[in-house]
Amino acid sequence: MRPLDVLKQYFGYSSFRPGQAEVIATIMEHRDCLAIMPTGAGKSLCFQIPGLLMSGLTLVISPLISLMKDQVDALLAQHIPAVFINSQCTLEESRQRFSEIRSGRVKLVYISPERLQNEFFTSFMQSMPIDMVVIDEAHCVSQWGHDFRPGYCAIRPWIEALPHRPVVAAFTATATQKVKEDMMNLLGLQDERVFIGGFDRPNLYFRVVRNTDRTSFILSYLARNKEDSGIIYAATRKEVDRLYKEIKARGFAAGRYHAGMTDGARKKVQEQFTYDKISVIVATNAFGMGIDKSNVRYVIHYQMPKNIESYYQEAGRAGRDGAPGECILLYNRRDIMIQKFLIENSVHSPEQQKKELQMLNAMIEYCETRHCLRQYILRYFGEKPSWDRCEHCGNCDQEVVQEDTTQIVRPICLCIDEVKGRFGMTMVCDILKGSMTARIRHYGFQRCTSFGMLSNYAAREIRDMIRQSLEDGFVQQSEGQYPVLSLTADGRDVLKGRKRAIQEIAIAAETEPAARPARKKKSVSESIDEEACRPLFEVLRSVRMDLAKKEHIPPFVIFSDATLWEMAASRPVSEEAMSRIKGVGEFKLHKYGRIFCQAVQDFQTTQR
């Protein structure tokens, strides 16, 4: 059987997504690989399909117990022989699963990295024909990454101790150059091929909302999106608890998740969310790495995360089924102090602390940029998009006009020049505002020509002007814990009157977006009339929920939202027509096809 045949039979797709076929072909050639593919690109299929085709066992190392369970549930729902072995298994369950593995009835085994330190497990696996070891969320091996996990450091010596070396395949969604090098070296990849998929997620809409009443925004947004599943991330447990109470008090079906809760409470709320018993979960970053729920329609960050890697991975949990998703970051400059406090109190290595602060500065730039958000993210991960504006993010959607801002930029350049490029944004802002602070008096900066030149503006507005000057290339900022400002060649030209400063200014800044009309969401598909298809989609979603309850599995394991939308548009009433819907594989067709065809037929009868 060919990989394409497996894809159609088990997963219901007639063609691979970009990058999948090449990764699968490399693994089937028994060659190591590292695949860096964005969330939603279909990483799991890249190792599940070879795992089904290989004669021996595939061992999948995964960081989260909940992720293992979700993936194994989805595989078992399609009659793919898979098990997980972790601390939540009873002694009897463990015995049964080891027996199934020994008898050859299992193709894929999911474990945590810490399981490799178990002597019995190691001895058992050394007697089994392991054809492939898969490392999911492989960035966890690097201390330069955002989710370092010490247990990942045991993977390489464990593999090297096996009687026969298997193919090693490492997968992750995001990685800088340093993290990529660590993954290859620390995991011991040999003669590997590296695949870096495009990081762009066209179905996701990104926006940053600045200086708004965040709680009011959340409540207004939830009221407009009651039927959708979503995640709201907050930086601290205290903030999660407060926001959760606010949301629950307004009658929304919500849950909360953070490390201060018991294991049982966290497990319960995650299951409620996975099974669509609650529609929104408020959580710290303790929730979600590798979350397999495909129908998350929005991810809102109540506060700024500490780096782009964390943000993009968390935001990427929206729209994994390919249908539209919205990623919103609510930003206030007070978030910077919170994140700096967390870094300084959790990172003890000076070198690592410096690195974390550099990554934080990049996150701040994302929040404060007025240019294309999607382009900023892609450039951060080393891609060079061919366009300047994506026309599908909050910044690109804002109406802008070109304005001569020389009379604002020149005082900024003058101030930076007067302090000899030795100070950062706060000092420059205070001088321009004319604030008589102790530091200004200490240095005598009240005598600067630029002192008070922008006193008619609020401090926040001056800071935004400086940030805009940074983006437009008149000013530059050093790296490090205490970045300072200096002039570029263009900035000196503006200062000396040889150049004008022309900037793009947003006509209407989003200061109170919760009160504004809802943004028109990107359509599920250009060929689908979402408004016309929604009544049938809701019927099919209800059928899916009933089946999920009977079978005790998450609804998205039966069919994704994207598959239901295609059913609602195509209206198949025969199994042959149903087989042509993306996401309807051979097994699901036989198990669910007739039920959904009948639902379509009944709907059409009532419409006549």
Automatic annotation (TrEMBL):
Gene Ontology BP terms: DNA recombination; DNA repair; DNA replication; SOS response
Enzyme class: isomerase
Any GO MF annotation of the entry: 3'-5' DNA helicase activity
CDD domains: DEXHc_RecQ, SF2_C_RecQ
Residue span(s) of domain HRDC: 530-608
The UniProt record lists the keyword DNA-binding: yes
Pfam families: DEAD, Helicase_C, HRDC, RecQ_Zn_bind, RQC
Record-linked PROSITE patterns: HELICASE_ATP_BIND_1 (PS51192), HELICASE_CTER (PS51194), HRDC (PS50967)
Boundaries of every Helicase ATP-binding domain copy: 24-193
GO cellular component term of the entry, any: cytoplasm
EC number: 5.6.2.4
Domain Helicase C-terminal, first and last residues per copy: 217-363
Cofactor(s) it depends on: Mg(2+); Zn(2+)
Alphabetic keyword roster: ATP-binding, DNA damage, DNA recombination, DNA repair, DNA-binding, Helicase, Hydrolase, Isomerase, Metal-binding, Nucleotide-binding, Zinc
Catalytic activity: Couples ATP hydrolysis with the unwinding of duplex DNA by translocating in the 3'-5' direction
Hydrolase found in the keyword field: yes
Family under the similarity heading: Belongs to the helicase family. RecQ subfamily.
Protein name (Swiss-Prot/TrEMBL): DNA helicase RecQ
Organism: Megasphaera hexanoica
